[in-house]
C-alpha cells in the first residue's frame, strides 16, 4: 500500500514538472525569434558593406516546436509462491558417512524506477530563394548602407542619384496575370540601361496594395490621379545605417567586427 502511494506521488510530481518545463521551453523558444531575425539582418548588412556583388541570405521562420517528455516507469516484483526448501548432502569418503544440511529460501520483493527527461526545441525555416525577393532585399540593404552599385566606388552617390537608382532597381510586387489584370502602371524616368548604361524610361506594373499605407517601400499617394508620381517611403532614409560612429549616432548591434550605428534623432549630424 505504501509502495502504491509512493508511485502515485512520483507520477503526479513528474506530470507537474513536465508542464512547468514545457511552459519554460516554449517561452525560451519564442524569445529566440528576435535574436535569429536580428542576426540575419546584421549579417546581410555586413555583406552589403564588404561584398559589392553579395546575394542576401535570409530565411522566413514559420513554425516553432517545443516538446518536453518526462516519464517514470516503476517496476515491482513480489513473490507469489511458497518458500523453497533446499537440501544439500556432502560425503567425506566411505567411512565418513554423510553430511546433510537444509535451508529454506524465500524470494525477496524488488522495486525499480526508471525516469526519462527529454527536451526538444526546433524552428522550421524556409529560405528566400525567389529572384525578385532577393533583388528586393539586395536593393534595400544596399540603399540602407549607401553601397549601391556605381562606376566609381570611391565617390558616393548623391541623395537624388541614390533615390533614382533605388526606384529603378527595386522590383515591386505585381500580379502574375497580364499587366492590365489589377496592376497599376507607371513610368520611372532616368533608369540606366543594363547594356548601354544610357538613361531611359522604365514601365512598371505593380500590385497597388504594395504602393499604399505606412509599410510601402515605393509609394503612390493617389491611385486615381491622372499621373502617378512615385516616391520612396519617407521613413526609409538613404545610408541611415553606418559602420562608423559620429555625433548623434547610437549603436543598434554588431556582426563580428562590424558595429552598426543609426541617427538618434531626425536633427542629428548623421543625416548629413
What are the SSEs and their pairings?
Elements: H1 2-50, E1 59-77, E2 84-91, E3 98-105, E4 110-127, H2 131-145, H3 159-169, E5 184-192, E6 199-206, E7 218-220, E8 230-232, E9 249-255, E10 258-263
Antiparallel strand pairs: 1-4, 2-3, 5-6, 7-8, 9-10
Helix pairs in contact: 1-2, 2-3
Choose one word for the global shape: elongated
Number of helices: 3
How many structural domains are formed by the residues? 2
Secondary structure category: alpha+beta
The order of strands across the largest sheet is: 1-4
Strand content: 25-35%
> Would you list the SSEs in sequence order as H and E?
HEEEEHHEEEEEE
Radius of gyration: 37 Å
**Distance between termini?**
82 Å
The proportion of residues forming helix, as a percent range, comes to 25-40%
Major β-sheet profile: 2 strands, antiparallel
Task: Give structural notes.
- The protein is built from 3 helices and 10 strands.
- A two-stranded antiparallel sheet has the order 1-4. A two-stranded antiparallel ribbon has the order 2-3. Strands 5-6 form a two-stranded antiparallel sheet.
- Helices cover 28% and strands 33% of the residues.
- The protein folds into 2 domains: 7-126, no CATH class; 130-241, no CATH class.
- Strand 2 and strand 3 form a beta hairpin.
- The model has no long low-confidence stretch (mean pLDDT 82).
- The longest helix has 49 residues, at 2-50.
- Helix 1 (2-50) packs across helix 2 and helix 2 (131-145) packs antiparallel against helix 3 (159-169).
- It has 272 residues and is of the alpha+beta class.
- It has helices at 2-50, 131-145, 159-169, and strands spanning 59-77, 84-91, 98-105, 110-127, 184-192, 199-206, 218-220, 230-232, 249-255, 258-263.
- It is elongated, with a radius of gyration of 37 Å.
Amino acid at each position: 500500500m505504501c509502495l502504491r502511494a509512493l508511485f502515485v506521488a512520483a507520477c503526479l510530481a513528474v506530470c507537474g514538472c513536465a508542464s512547468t518545463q514545457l511552459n519554460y521551453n516554449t517561452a525560451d523558444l519564442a524569445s529566440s525569434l528576435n535574436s535569429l531575425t536580428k542576426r540575419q539582418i546584421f549579417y546581410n548588412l555586413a555583406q552589403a558593406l564588404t561584398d559589392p556583388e553579395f546575394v542576401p541570405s535570409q530565411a522566413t521562420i514559420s513554425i516553432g516546436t517545443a516538446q518536453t517528455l518526462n516519464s517514470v516507469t516503476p517496476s515491482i516484483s513480489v513473490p507469489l509462491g511458497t518458500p523453497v526448501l533446499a537440501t544439500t548432502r556432502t560425503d567425506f569418503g566411505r567411512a565418513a558417512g554423510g553430511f546433510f544440511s537444509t535451508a529454506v529460501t524465500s524470494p525477496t520483493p524488488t522495486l525499480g524506477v526508471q525516469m526519462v527527461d527529454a527536451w526538444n526545441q526546433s524552428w522550421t525555416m524556409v529560405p528566400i530563394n525567389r529572384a525578385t525577393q532577393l533583388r528586393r532585399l539586395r536593393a534595400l540593404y544596399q540603399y540602407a548602407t549607401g553601397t549601391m552599385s556605381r562606376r566609381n566606388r570611391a565617390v558616393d552617390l548623391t541623395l537624388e542619384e541614390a533615390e533614382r537608382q533605388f526606384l529603378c532597381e527595386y522590383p515591386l510586387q505585381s500580379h502574375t496575370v497580364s499587366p492590365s489584370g489589377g496592376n497599376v502602371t507607371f513610368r520611372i524616368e532616368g533608369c540606366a540601361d543594363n547594356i548601354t548604361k544610357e538613361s531611359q524610361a522604365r514601365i512598371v506594373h505593380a500590385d497597388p496594395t504594395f504602393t499604399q499605407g505606412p509599410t510601402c517601400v515605393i509609394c503612390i499617394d493617389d491611385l486615381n490621379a491622372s499621373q502617378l508620381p512615385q516616391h520612396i517611403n519617407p521613413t526609409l532614409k538613404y545610408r541611415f545605417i553606418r559602420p562608423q560612429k559620429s555625433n548623434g549616432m547610437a549603436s543598434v548591434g554588431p556582426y563580428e567586427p562590424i558595429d552598426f550605428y543609426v541617427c538618434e534623432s531626425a536633427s542629428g549630424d548623421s543625416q548629413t
